[in-house]
Amino acid sequence: MLPSLSDVPVVPPGREAPDAYAISAEFYDILQADLDRARVRRFYGRAVRGARRGVLDVGAGTGRVTFMCLARSRAPVFAVEPTRCMRSLLMTRLAALPVDVRTRVTVYPYRLDEAALREVADVGICHNTVACLRPTARRALWPAVADALVPGGVFLVQLPPERLPDGEATHVLPAQTMGRHEYGGRMVMSADADRIRTRFDYWVRGESGVLRAYTETFWMWPASRAEVLGELAQCGFVPLPERADPAVLAVRLGRR
Protein backbone atom coordinates (compact mmCIF):
# COMPACT_ATOMS: atom_id res chain seq x y z
CA MET A 1 0.00 0.00 0.00
CA LEU A 2 1.37 3.41 -0.97
CA PRO A 3 1.71 5.98 1.82
CA SER A 4 -0.46 9.07 1.85
CA LEU A 5 1.42 12.17 0.73
CA SER A 6 0.65 13.68 4.12
CA ASP A 7 2.69 10.85 5.69
CA VAL A 8 5.79 11.46 3.55
CA PRO A 9 8.42 13.74 5.11
CA VAL A 10 9.30 16.70 2.92
CA VAL A 11 12.94 17.70 2.48
CA PRO A 12 13.32 21.35 3.50
CA PRO A 13 13.77 23.53 0.38
CA GLY A 14 17.04 24.89 1.73
CA ARG A 15 18.71 21.51 1.26
CA GLU A 16 17.97 21.39 -2.46
CA ALA A 17 20.76 22.94 -4.52
CA PRO A 18 19.72 25.50 -7.14
CA ASP A 19 19.72 24.20 -10.70
CA ALA A 20 22.99 25.73 -11.81
CA TYR A 21 22.96 23.49 -14.90
CA ALA A 22 19.41 24.24 -16.03
CA ILE A 23 20.58 25.02 -19.58
CA SER A 24 23.75 22.92 -19.79
CA ALA A 25 22.00 19.70 -18.75
CA GLU A 26 20.42 19.34 -22.20
CA PHE A 27 23.75 19.71 -24.00
CA TYR A 28 26.18 18.22 -21.48
CA ASP A 29 26.23 14.60 -22.63
CA ILE A 30 25.81 15.03 -26.35
CA LEU A 31 28.64 17.56 -26.64
CA GLN A 32 31.11 16.28 -24.04
CA ALA A 33 30.36 12.63 -23.26
CA ASP A 34 32.82 10.88 -25.60
CA LEU A 35 35.87 12.91 -24.58
CA ASP A 36 34.98 12.87 -20.90
CA ARG A 37 34.26 9.13 -20.87
CA ALA A 38 37.78 8.42 -22.14
CA ARG A 39 39.23 10.86 -19.62
CA VAL A 40 37.37 9.20 -16.74
CA ARG A 41 38.66 5.76 -17.68
CA ARG A 42 42.21 7.09 -17.93
CA PHE A 43 42.10 9.05 -14.69
CA TYR A 44 40.34 6.58 -12.39
CA GLY A 45 39.88 3.16 -14.01
CA ARG A 46 42.82 1.45 -12.35
CA ALA A 47 41.90 2.61 -8.85
CA VAL A 48 38.26 1.61 -9.29
CA ARG A 49 39.21 -1.93 -10.31
CA GLY A 50 40.86 -2.31 -6.91
CA ALA A 51 37.85 -1.09 -4.90
CA ARG A 52 36.42 -3.58 -2.40
CA ARG A 53 34.46 -1.65 0.25
CA GLY A 54 32.85 0.88 -2.08
CA VAL A 55 33.42 3.81 -4.43
CA LEU A 56 32.43 7.37 -3.56
CA ASP A 57 31.54 9.63 -6.52
CA VAL A 58 31.49 13.26 -5.35
CA GLY A 59 29.63 15.48 -7.82
CA ALA A 60 28.29 12.59 -9.89
CA GLY A 61 26.61 14.78 -12.52
CA THR A 62 25.00 12.69 -15.26
CA GLY A 63 26.96 9.62 -14.17
CA ARG A 64 30.16 9.37 -16.15
CA VAL A 65 32.20 8.19 -13.15
CA THR A 66 29.30 6.26 -11.63
CA PHE A 67 28.77 4.14 -14.74
CA MET A 68 32.48 3.48 -15.15
CA CYS A 69 32.57 2.28 -11.53
CA LEU A 70 29.61 -0.04 -12.03
CA ALA A 71 31.30 -1.53 -15.10
CA ARG A 72 34.77 -1.99 -13.60
CA SER A 73 34.05 -2.98 -10.01
CA ARG A 74 31.61 -5.13 -8.07
CA ALA A 75 31.79 -2.75 -5.11
CA PRO A 76 28.80 -0.57 -4.19
CA VAL A 77 28.80 2.98 -5.53
CA PHE A 78 27.76 6.06 -3.55
CA ALA A 79 26.89 8.86 -5.98
CA VAL A 80 26.50 12.34 -4.51
CA GLU A 81 24.78 14.93 -6.74
CA PRO A 82 22.90 17.86 -5.17
CA THR A 83 21.80 19.54 -8.42
CA ARG A 84 18.33 18.41 -9.44
CA CYS A 85 18.58 18.60 -13.24
CA MET A 86 21.86 16.67 -13.39
CA ARG A 87 20.62 14.15 -10.85
CA SER A 88 17.43 13.63 -12.87
CA LEU A 89 19.50 12.61 -15.89
CA LEU A 90 21.58 10.31 -13.71
CA MET A 91 18.48 8.64 -12.24
CA THR A 92 16.91 8.15 -15.67
CA ARG A 93 20.04 6.43 -16.95
CA LEU A 94 20.36 4.26 -13.84
CA ALA A 95 16.71 3.20 -14.11
CA ALA A 96 17.48 1.60 -17.49
CA LEU A 97 20.12 -0.71 -15.99
CA PRO A 98 19.44 -4.33 -15.02
CA VAL A 99 18.12 -4.63 -11.48
CA ASP A 100 21.20 -6.46 -10.20
CA VAL A 101 23.41 -3.58 -11.37
CA ARG A 102 21.37 -0.65 -10.14
CA THR A 103 21.00 -2.20 -6.69
CA ARG A 104 24.72 -1.52 -6.27
CA VAL A 105 24.39 2.26 -6.56
CA THR A 106 22.85 4.73 -4.12
CA VAL A 107 22.23 8.34 -5.17
CA TYR A 108 22.33 11.11 -2.56
CA PRO A 109 20.58 14.42 -3.42
CA TYR A 110 22.65 16.51 -1.00
CA ARG A 111 26.12 17.90 -0.56
CA LEU A 112 28.52 15.29 0.79
CA ASP A 113 28.56 16.79 4.29
CA GLU A 114 24.74 16.57 4.37
CA ALA A 115 24.75 12.96 3.16
CA ALA A 116 26.64 12.05 6.37
CA LEU A 117 28.40 9.00 4.93
CA ARG A 118 30.79 7.23 7.30
CA GLU A 119 33.51 4.81 6.14
CA VAL A 120 31.52 3.50 3.18
CA ALA A 121 34.27 3.46 0.53
CA ASP A 122 37.92 2.61 0.01
CA VAL A 123 38.09 4.67 -3.21
CA GLY A 124 36.80 8.21 -3.60
CA ILE A 125 36.62 10.27 -6.80
CA CYS A 126 35.87 13.93 -7.34
CA HIS A 127 35.78 14.61 -11.08
CA ASN A 128 35.14 17.95 -12.78
CA THR A 129 33.75 19.46 -9.58
CA VAL A 130 36.31 21.12 -7.31
CA ALA A 131 37.05 23.98 -9.71
CA CYS A 132 33.47 25.22 -9.33
CA LEU A 133 33.63 25.39 -5.53
CA ARG A 134 34.45 28.61 -3.73
CA PRO A 135 37.62 28.20 -1.64
CA THR A 136 35.60 28.01 1.60
CA ALA A 137 33.33 25.32 0.12
CA ARG A 138 36.33 23.42 -1.24
CA ARG A 139 38.02 23.36 2.16
CA ALA A 140 34.75 22.26 3.78
CA LEU A 141 34.51 19.29 1.39
CA TRP A 142 37.69 17.53 2.50
CA PRO A 143 36.57 16.58 6.06
CA ALA A 144 33.39 15.05 4.60
CA VAL A 145 35.49 13.01 2.15
CA ALA A 146 37.69 11.82 5.03
CA ASP A 147 34.59 10.75 6.97
CA ALA A 148 33.23 8.80 3.99
CA LEU A 149 36.45 6.85 3.35
CA VAL A 150 37.86 4.01 5.41
CA PRO A 151 41.37 4.50 6.83
CA GLY A 152 43.83 3.80 4.05
CA GLY A 153 41.26 4.73 1.41
CA VAL A 154 42.44 6.40 -1.81
CA PHE A 155 41.01 9.72 -2.98
CA LEU A 156 41.45 10.98 -6.55
CA VAL A 157 40.53 14.57 -7.34
CA GLN A 158 40.66 16.42 -10.63
CA LEU A 159 42.46 19.64 -9.82
CA PRO A 160 41.10 23.10 -10.63
CA PRO A 161 43.03 25.40 -12.97
CA GLU A 162 46.24 26.48 -11.28
CA ARG A 163 46.03 30.12 -12.32
CA LEU A 164 43.83 32.71 -13.97
CA PRO A 165 43.83 32.66 -17.79
CA ASP A 166 45.69 35.33 -19.73
CA GLY A 167 43.10 37.09 -21.83
CA GLU A 168 40.15 35.16 -23.24
CA ALA A 169 40.45 31.47 -24.13
CA THR A 170 37.88 29.74 -26.35
CA HIS A 171 37.38 25.99 -26.70
CA VAL A 172 34.98 24.79 -29.39
CA LEU A 173 32.92 21.72 -28.52
CA PRO A 174 32.75 19.36 -31.52
CA ALA A 175 29.33 19.54 -33.18
CA GLN A 176 27.12 16.46 -32.95
CA THR A 177 24.21 15.42 -35.16
CA MET A 178 20.96 14.01 -33.83
CA GLY A 179 18.36 13.32 -36.49
CA ARG A 180 17.82 16.49 -38.52
CA HIS A 181 19.47 18.75 -35.96
CA GLU A 182 23.08 19.66 -35.26
CA TYR A 183 24.11 20.52 -31.70
CA GLY A 184 27.11 22.74 -31.10
CA GLY A 185 28.76 24.85 -28.46
CA ARG A 186 31.85 26.55 -27.15
CA MET A 187 33.41 27.37 -23.80
CA VAL A 188 34.89 30.82 -23.26
CA MET A 189 37.10 31.41 -20.21
CA SER A 190 38.34 34.76 -18.90
CA ALA A 191 39.68 36.18 -15.65
CA ASP A 192 37.41 38.19 -13.39
CA ALA A 193 39.18 39.42 -10.24
CA ASP A 194 40.26 36.25 -8.37
CA ARG A 195 38.02 33.84 -10.26
CA ILE A 196 37.45 32.50 -13.77
CA ARG A 197 34.33 33.34 -15.72
CA THR A 198 33.39 30.28 -17.78
CA ARG A 199 30.69 30.96 -20.36
CA PHE A 200 29.09 28.18 -22.36
CA ASP A 201 27.36 29.10 -25.62
CA TYR A 202 25.07 26.44 -27.08
CA TRP A 203 23.08 26.26 -30.29
CA VAL A 204 20.90 23.89 -32.27
CA ARG A 205 20.86 24.16 -36.07
CA GLY A 206 18.37 22.79 -38.56
CA GLU A 207 18.01 23.07 -42.31
CA SER A 208 16.81 26.67 -41.98
CA GLY A 209 19.66 27.78 -39.70
CA VAL A 210 19.91 28.31 -35.94
CA LEU A 211 16.75 27.08 -34.23
CA ARG A 212 17.75 27.75 -30.64
CA ALA A 213 20.66 29.43 -28.85
CA TYR A 214 21.51 29.68 -25.16
CA THR A 215 24.25 30.97 -22.88
CA GLU A 216 25.07 29.83 -19.35
CA THR A 217 27.87 31.15 -17.14
CA PHE A 218 29.74 29.33 -14.37
CA TRP A 219 32.50 30.49 -12.05
CA MET A 220 35.70 28.67 -11.22
CA TRP A 221 38.31 29.36 -8.57
CA PRO A 222 41.96 28.51 -9.34
CA ALA A 223 44.14 26.66 -6.84
CA SER A 224 47.58 25.10 -7.14
CA ARG A 225 48.35 21.44 -6.54
CA ALA A 226 50.36 22.41 -3.46
CA GLU A 227 47.46 24.43 -2.08
CA VAL A 228 44.94 21.60 -2.50
CA LEU A 229 47.40 19.07 -1.10
CA GLY A 230 47.96 21.29 1.94
CA GLU A 231 44.22 21.49 2.58
CA LEU A 232 43.86 17.71 2.29
CA ALA A 233 46.83 17.14 4.61
CA GLN A 234 44.99 18.99 7.36
CA CYS A 235 42.27 16.31 7.11
CA GLY A 236 44.68 13.39 7.41
CA PHE A 237 45.47 12.71 3.75
CA VAL A 238 48.99 11.90 2.56
CA PRO A 239 50.16 12.21 -1.06
CA LEU A 240 50.60 9.23 -3.34
CA PRO A 241 53.07 9.18 -6.25
CA GLU A 242 52.04 11.61 -8.98
CA ARG A 243 49.88 10.19 -11.74
CA ALA A 244 50.83 10.25 -15.39
CA ASP A 245 48.28 13.01 -15.90
CA PRO A 246 49.01 16.07 -13.74
CA ALA A 247 45.33 17.03 -13.80
CA VAL A 248 44.63 14.46 -11.06
CA LEU A 249 45.87 14.52 -7.48
CA ALA A 250 46.00 11.16 -5.65
CA VAL A 251 46.09 10.95 -1.85
CA ARG A 252 45.54 8.29 0.79
CA LEU A 253 43.70 8.73 4.07
CA GLY A 254 46.02 8.04 6.99
CA ARG A 255 45.17 5.67 9.79
CA ARG A 256 42.98 7.25 12.43
Describe the structure.
Pfam families: Methyltransf_12 (PF08242). One of its GO terms (molecular function) is methyltransferase activity. InterPro entries: Methyltransf_12 (IPR013217), SAM-dependent_MTases_sf (IPR029063). Keywords: Methyltransferase, Transferase. One of its GO terms (biological process) is methylation. The chain has 256 residues and is α/β, with parallel strands linked by helices. It has 2 domains: 15-160 and 223-253, Rossmann fold (3-Layer(aba) Sandwich); 168-220, N-terminal domain of TfIIb (Single Sheet), CATH 2.20.25. Helices cover 30% and strands 33% of the residues. It has 7 helices and 11 strands. It has helices at 24-49, 64-72, 84-95, 99-102, 112-115, 135-148, 225-233, and strands spanning 55-58, 77-80, 105-108, 121-126, 149-158, 168-178, 181-192, 195-206, 209-220, 237-239, 248-253. A 7-stranded mixed β-sheet has the order 3-2-1-4-5-11-10, with helices on both faces. A hairpin with a 2-residue loop joins strand 6 (168-178) and strand 7. The longest helix is centred in the first third of the chain and has 26 residues, at 24-49. It is globular and about 65 Å long. The termini are far apart.
Structural class: alpha/beta
The CATH class of the largest domain is Alpha Beta
CATH topology of the largest domain: Rossmann fold
Number of domains: 2
Distance between the termini: 45 Å
- Unreliable runs, pLDDT <50, ≥5 residues? 1-14
The CATH architecture of the largest domain is: 3-Layer(aba) Sandwich
Helical amount among residues, as a percent range? Answer: 25-40%
Tally of individual helices: 7
β-strand number? 11
| CATH homolog superfamily of the largest domain | Vaccinia Virus protein VP39
Q: Major beta sheet, specifics?
A: 7 strands, mixed
SSE pattern, N- to C-terminal: HEHEHHEHEHEEEEEHEE
What spatial order of strands do you see in the largest sheet? 3-2-1-4-5-11-10
Which strand-content bin applies to the residues? Answer: 25-35%
GO molecular function: methyltransferase activity
Protein name: Class I SAM-dependent methyltransferase
Organism: Streptomyces cyaneochromogenes
Domain Methyltransferase type: 56-155
